[in-house]
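Q: Give me the 3D complex with copper (II) ion.
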Amino acid sequence: MKRRLGVTALVMGTGLMLAGCGGSGGSSSARPALKISGAYMPAPVNGDMAAGFFTVTNSGGADTLTSVTSSLAGDVTLHATKGGAMEEEKSFAVPADGTLDFASGGNHLMFEKLTHRPEQGEKVPVQLHFAKSGTVTVEMPVKPATYDPKTGH
Ligand SMILES: [Cu+2]
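A: Here is the predicted complex, encoded as structure tokens.
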């Protein structure tokens, strides 16, 4: 009995230590407060695959984007662009009091095994799954293939 208590205390102690290491400074225990903005999908040139972009703004503690799903696609993967080549990532960190940006030429979502070819003007429902904040659903409007969010067209 005494031994069991000892093990429990040890495990709890480790858990606290790990929690203390996550994130920066004193805000590591704060709850994340996420806002998704600027979501869009450039109209794809064919029905095989599509890309998606958005920005996560966080005014709370750190979180992690762990996966993305959509009724449009059998498969949605997270990609980063490094040195001009894209790489699949398992997850993306959402920094405390910071932003996570998915933008043309950088991070992007890759939709594959599409149920249909998305048309301009369509709104694609996309579920962003976060480790702490849970699932956030965004309507991702389909924009022209050459859409530039900086100019709005
Ligand atoms: Cu990619």
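A quick observation: The two ends are 69 Å apart (CA to CA).
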